[in-house]
Amino acid sequence: MSESPLSQSPSQLSQANLAEADDTSEAHAISEAHAASEAHARSESTVVLETEGLCKYWGGVKALDNMSLRFHERSLHGIVGPNGAGKSTLLNMLCGTYKPTAGRIIHNGDCINDIRPYDFARRGIGRGFQKTNIYPQVTCLENCCIAAQRRVGGSFNIFLPKNSSQLLEEMADQALAQVGLESRRDEIASHISYGEQRQLEIAMVLATAPSVLLLDEPMAGMGHEESQLIIELLKTLKKDYCIVLVEHDMDAVFELSDQLTVMVNGQHLITGSVEEVRDNSKVKEAYLGQGDEVI
């Protein structure tokens, strides 16, 4: 039977307290070492996509001004900022929809400023959109087949026999399985729920066989349970992909991000860990709130 604390001598209590303090210190040291190890791993991981002094001007409006960022393999990089900060403009430039006014976009060491938008997809840069961007009158499988053709070229005709589009269907089936929609394979896209439609859009990006996923508010308009499904999906996907995530759900961004960038008025404010961004006074003032508001 263990000895009651009340029956222990002062020296025994002192030794017990010291032992407990040592255990706490050791646990804290292990936690700090783990965090440092993760930070080191991120710093050593391969940069797959980056921008150097990237600018986009619309007449006298600087939608994006001197933006230099690095996005690493197998990590999720969150992009946040107020409305009009330039977040969607940045994604549109990273996928080739907009051409830079100045600066460079570099993918796997190559400057890709001047290639065509479909060549971005063929290089492995996939884009999801702020509004659900699916083909509602065809099946989930056919949606993903249409997306897959962006990567392999050619065309997908939904009226051809299945064996004529075998490669596209294999890519589509794999993408549906990755997001958990294999059971919805033959459902018409307009018949599935809104949350499943957002999952389908991510599957369409995955069907292009990307290495980089550019996702613009994938949780927009969702309830809590649907958002949690997307959060868990992104946690899984970031183990294999470089993900650039624009999202207004700050709790989700904090939970998911390995690195976090804050933008204000088209300019870069800070990039760092979630903790560094939370603690930054400029961020609190410009975006997240200050005073008594909890960040």
Task: Characterise this structure.
This protein is an alpha/beta fold and 295 residues long. The protein is globular, with a radius of gyration of 24 Å. The chain starts with 9 loop residues before the first helix and ends in a 7-residue tail after the last helix. It folds into 2 domains: 157 residues, 3-Layer(aba) Sandwich (Rossmann fold); 78 residues, no CATH class. The chain contains 10 helices and 10 strands. The strands form 2 sheets. A 6-stranded mixed sheet has the order 6-7-8-3-9-10, sandwiched between helices. Strands 2-1-4-5 form a 4-stranded antiparallel sheet, with helices on one face. Helix 4 crosses helix 5. Helix content is 42%, strand content 21%. The longest helix is centred in the first third of the chain and has 35 residues. The C terminus is likely disordered.
